[in-house]
């Protein structure tokens, strides 16, 4: 049954908050103040860098194909901030991520040589295919502007995960700007994404596809963390 716009928007938001990636056991290891594992944080950061490299491309396509003037203007501001950092008075967001990896002791050569693990690549490819296919625009918008931007809103208690990470690993506030900037901005970006997807999905099928896109994207994020976790945990053999 076709939901009303407002009911559908509420369903999108509930679907986002139902999928909490912070519950993955990887974060229990990363946030363990009694046993800081910097090598594990480096592995996680390098996979996060793979995602960051592509994010502007997603926003560019969502801007270019956006059918609504109001939402297109909002996407323009989003794109401008990603590229320049002017709105947050910082800098290009890929450069902010590079600052974070450098703070962990990752060299430019190590960072540039790193490749996406298969689950990370699956997440990259799913969003790229949806954002660059006009027939799947509503799916790309749901995957990027709701599910992906929403990842930075998760907290543990009242603290953001990057705040805890910074304390555990003795990182400076300037080292964590990539995360603190996104935590502030993505509150608004998610609300804008919910509005856009709610306006886009005018059929029952489109609504179902967008809800699935949010759920599936969150699961792909969880899968990315599982892929990192599997590099440090032996995989149990399967016996016939």
DSSP helical segment count: 11
Query: Strand arrangement, largest sheet?
Result: 1-2
Integer average pLDDT: 94
Structural class: mainly alpha
Strand content: under 5%
CATH class: Mainly Alpha
Unreliable spans are none
Query: Which oligomerization state do the chains in this entry correspond to?
Result: single chain
General shape: globular
CATH superfamily: Heme oxygenase-like
As for the CATH topology, it is Heme Oxygenase, Chain A
- The Rg value, from CA coordinates, equals 18 Å
How does this model look, in words?
This protein is mostly helical and 240 residues long. It has a single domain (5-229), classed as Up-down Bundle (Heme Oxygenase, Chain A), CATH 1.20.910. The protein has eleven helices and two strands, in the order ααααααααββααα. The chain has helices spanning 5-18, 25-30, 38-65, 69-84, 93-103, 108-113, 118-131, 137-148, 161-168, 177-200, 204-230; strands spanning 155-156, 159-160. A two-stranded antiparallel sheet has the order 1-2. Helix 1 (5-18) packs antiparallel against helix 10 and helix 3 (38-65) packs parallel to helix 7. The radius of gyration is 18 Å and the shape is globular. The N and C termini lie far apart (44 Å). The mean pLDDT is 94.
């Amino acid at each position: 049954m076709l939901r009303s716009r407002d009911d559908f928007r509420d369903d999108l938001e509930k679907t986002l908050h139902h999928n909490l990636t912070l519950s993955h056991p990887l974060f229990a290891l990363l946030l363990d103040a009694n046993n800081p594992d910097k090598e594990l944080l480096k592995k996680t950061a390098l996979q996060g860098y793979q995602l960051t490299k592509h994010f502007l491309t997603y926003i560019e396509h969502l801007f270019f194909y956006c059918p609504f003037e109001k939402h297109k203007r909002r996407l323009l501001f989003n794109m401008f901030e990603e590229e320049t950092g002017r709105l947050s008075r910082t800098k290009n967001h890929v450069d902010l991520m590079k600052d974070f990896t450098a703070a962990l002791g990752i060299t430019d050569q190590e960072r540039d040589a790193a490749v996406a693990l298969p689950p990370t690549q699956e997440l990259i490819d799913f969003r790229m295919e949806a954002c660059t296919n006009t027939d799947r625009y509503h799916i790309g918008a749901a995957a990027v502007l709701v599910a992906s931007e929403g990842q930075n809103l998760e907290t543990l208690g009242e603290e953001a995960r990057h705040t805890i990470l910074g304390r555990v690993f003795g990182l400076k506030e300037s080292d964590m700007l990539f995360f603190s900037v996104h935590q502030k901005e993505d509150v608004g970006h998610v609300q804008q994404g919910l509005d856009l997807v709610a306006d886009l999905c005018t059929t029952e099928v489109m609504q179902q596809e967008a809800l699935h896109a949010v759920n599936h994207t969150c699961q792909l994020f969880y899968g990315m963390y599982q892929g990192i976790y599997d590099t440090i945990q032996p995989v149990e053999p399967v016996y016939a």
